Amino acid sequence: MRRNKKAFLAGVIILVLLASLLLTVLPARASDFGSGAKFNAPEVEKSFSLPTTTQDREKPYFIHDQLIKLILLLVFMGVTALIIIRSRYKYRKIILIASVAVLGLYLGGFLCPLTAIQNLFIKWQTGYLLLFLTVLIPALLWSRIFCGYICPFGALQELLHFKRISRIIPSVWNRYLTKVKYVLLGYLVVRVLVTGQVILQDYTPFKALFTWGGTPLSIGLGLTFGILSIIMYRPFCRYVCPLGAFLALLSRFSLFKVRVSSNCVNCGLCQKVCKSRTIAGKPPRIDSSECILCGDCLEKCPKKAIVTERTKIWDISGAGLCPVPIAEKNPQKMTN
Length: 336
Description:
It is built from 16 helices and 4 strands. By secondary structure, the chain is mainly alpha-helical. The protein has 2 domains: 66-250, no CATH class; 255-334, Alpha-Beta Plaits, CATH 3.30.70.20. The strands form 2 sheets. It has a two-stranded antiparallel ribbon with strand order 1-4. A hairpin with a 4-residue loop joins strand 2 and strand 3. Helix 4 (92-106) packs across helix 8 and helix 5 (116-122) packs parallel to helix 10 (180-195). The longest helix has 22 residues, at 2-23. The N and C termini lie far apart (52 Å).
């Protein structure tokens, strides 16, 4: 009973924080949003029209160090793919630390969770489109591997988390809170299409840390979500991040999905080790849209009943692209 009260209190706290965050970004007029952050490039972000002047046509394709970001992102994606293909999930923490150090502290944190989707409509004429496609295409293969391995904002939250003192939000609250990021995603997309302006630059947690600066508000948000990350697993990723919501939608169409095979004995261990709370029911089912492929359930399952299932359309297991064995439709073939 005492633990349930603490869990309920934690749910109330995070709900208040989320409500406060959303209320602060809904002023009466669009002009109240402000445009002082560095993400609002003057001419580029106020129009969707193609360049018409000679000066516009002479602008470089790669801006704001996009080329070096693209190269490093491809390197991280390649290493992540190897980890998943070879089922070497024990090395996942190494790439999380590298993400915080390189993509976070060195490059200032990208892609920014709150502005990434907006910038897709604003900066599509630049190398930003390639950056976004580098995140999008792997999501169509292996779901949210960017969230689970590469994003420095998510990586820092996970590294701050202490499992021994973690608190769990009740299932009812968790079910509703996970919808917040989809609402925020829809709002940002509609608004950027209507106004052509990027907002919420100062509301991204940990951005102040990664950029070695920031406003009192951004520093406060970073500290708030940092403290919440200690007792809750990836609170910003699971409940607020619009980029995560977009990748979650794409994950429903990914070529490989983590499934529970017929070998399952309903021991419940997979549900206990899943920190993202994507596994539920008896027999257990995995919500692929919330799964970040951390590999905990794959490694801990005593019956090896958790498998990565290929789609029926693409049968490419012979190419070695399937990270774990696929459950056979006819188990007798395996013994012959």
